[in-house]
Design brief:
Keywords: Methyltransferase, Transferase. The protein has 18 helices and 22 strands. By secondary structure, the protein is an alpha/beta fold. The longest helix has 22 residues, at 267-288. The termini are far apart.
């Protein structure tokens, strides 16, 4: 079915080698720069000026009161942040914390230098070669979780396909239940109002078997907070900041600044706005609870100026990743970036755009790279084939994290002596001892010439990807402990559902 890059001898008949374990990754390269130190300082100072003089519109009265009590100037819905407030928030914000999962093997320390990937998130539709494009439902949501659990290079769950067949007041029950029933990686929860957040926290606490103290003093789930660029935090997002911070759960602050639309068209201008919004949200979190785990974040790119549509994997996208990394290091916090694609199908455009986003996150030293696999149509659709082909690239990035040695044994002088001019190294002891270290691809055809490939069925990568995801789902078995975790929350879900659930905040 497949072969390794670099040779087919001895392994093709035996099938693919065991999957590599990518569960613990750290950046292998020094972060790259796009700005000078002086320019980074200038952007940071400009962002502080935006917060102090222009302010942010904060739609939640409770959040405005928290900020006013901390010294902010509030006028109607506008909040003006003093520099001392922001500096105090950056002083109390932790540089490192543990992201806990039910399985300790999937718990991680979230800090600068660590490298984590998650799949696509927030897609209202799903698409695959068998069933076509359709509204997201609980089946596709659960399928995506199974794929995320299967691949060790995906480190935390994300909501790849929104289960729109579940009523909104009950949807958070189904989403948390499916995560616990499917796998044992780090959980996520939406910030859609206090009632749903409190339900989510209780399900996590019950399902994990945690005391109130154990839950409050450790991060067991995370949420993404998107500001409404330019310069606004809406009520559900502000409520999420306050409630997740007070509960000690991880906040991933993510302005979505598309240059030329919701942000200035220049990279520096868009990053100034992104930085101001991130700092404002971080400040709110730290004023709600000093020491709350909060990740700096950015998902900046540009728009197609002819159509206004979001674009991803562009040079501007990568430049904003590099600049975001510099700003995150300037304030000393771990940070979240993203890949992604505007392509409508799992084609060359989609692969190129996603790989550019992965490289941008890698080169910029991002702690977490979101939307690493499966994103189509700028986030409107989760693609099954796209997930598989994207994860091929993610695993290649992960393989770069393995140390590369120049030690004498690796130089291989014995192998160099053994092979005559014009010979080959396939069967040398040096090669055979290291064969299982090579990168394995389930999508690279095992037929080395066009004629034999065509005769065998002429499958392209997307067709092979269909067989890969179908095989994974057909053979999927949840890890140990899932049934027990679900059993601990079933009565809570039944009782809350019978009472009508929890409507989201408008």
């Amino acid at each position: 079915m497949a072969r390794r890059h670099g040779g087919r001898q001895g392994r093709a008949e035996a099938g693919p080698p065991p999957a590599k374990d990518y569960s613990r990754l750290r950046h292998p390269f020094a972060p790259q720069r796009i700005f000078s130190d002086d320019e980074v300082t200038a952007i940071h100072q400009a962002a502080l000026e935006v917060l102090q003089e222009l302010g942010l519109k904060v739609l939640l009265p409770e959040a405005r009161q928290i900020l006013a009590d901390a010294g902010a100037r509030v006028s109607d819905e506008m909040v003006y942040f003093g520099r001392d407030m922001v500096e105090e928030a950056l002083r109390t914000a932790p540089r490192s914390w543990r992201v806990n999962a039910r399985n300790p093997d999937h718990s991680h320390v979230y800090e600068p230098g660590a490298l984590f990937f998650s799949g696509s998130g927030g897609c209202p539709n799903a698409s695959d070669a068998v069933r076509g494009r359709r509204p997201g439902d609980l089946e596709s949501y659960t399928d995506a979780l199974k794929l995320q659990q299967h691949f060790s290079v995906i480190h935390k769950f994300s909501p790849s396909a929104e289960p729109q067949d579940v009523p909104v007041p009950l949807r958070h029950y189904a989403m948390i239940r499916a995560q616990m029933a499917t796998g044992d990686k780090a959980l996520f929860g939406y910030a859609r109002g206090r009632a749903q957040i409190e339900d989510t926290f209780e399900m996590v606490r019950l399902g994990m078997g945690l005391s109130d103290e154990e839950f409050l003093n450790n991060s067991w789930c995370s949420t993404v907070i998107n500001t409404n660029s330019p310069r606004m935090i809406d009520a559900p997002m502000a409520q999420g900041i306050v409630d997740f911070a007070r509960a000690g759960q991880m906040l991933i602050i993510t302005p979505f600044c598309l240059a030329g639309a919701m942000a200035p068209i220049t990279v520096a201008g868009a990053l100034t706005l992104q930085h101001a919004e991130s700092l404002g949200a971080i400040t709110l979190a730290q004023m709600a609870r000093p020491g709350a785990p909060v990740s700096y974040g950015g998902f900046g790119s540009n728009v197609d100026m002819k159509s206004g549509s979001p674009a991803f994997g562009t040079p501007e996208h990568v430049k904003m990743q590099l600049g975001s990394g510099q700003l995150a290091r300037h304030i000393g916090l771990p940070w979240r970036s993203a890949a992604g694609s505007a392509s409508n199908v799992a084609d060359a455009q989609g692969a190129t755009e996603n790989m550019m986003g992965l490289w941008g996150g890698m080169m910029s030293g991002a702690t977490l790279i979101v939307h690493s696999g499966g994103w189509l149509e700028g986030g409107l659709t989760f693609g099954y084939e796209k997930m598989i082909t994207d994860l091929e690239g993610v695993q290649m990035i992960a393989d770069l994290c393995a140390p590369t040695s120049g030690a004498e044994a690796e130089i291989g002088m014995d192998a160099l002596r053994d092979v005559e001019p014009g010979g080959h190294f396939f069967a040398t002891q040096h090669t055979m001892e290291r064969y299982d270290q090579a990168f394995y691809s389930p999508l690279v055809a095992d037929l080395s010439n066009f004629g034999s490939w065509e005769e065998a069925g002429a499958e392209d990568a997307a067709t092979r990807a269909t067989r890969v995801w179908q095989g994974i789902l057909a053979e999927y078995t949840p890890p140990p402990g899932c049934d027990e975790a679900v059993a601990r929350i079933e009565q809570f879900i039944a009782d809350r559902s019978a009472a009508g659930g929890a409507p989201p905040m408008e």
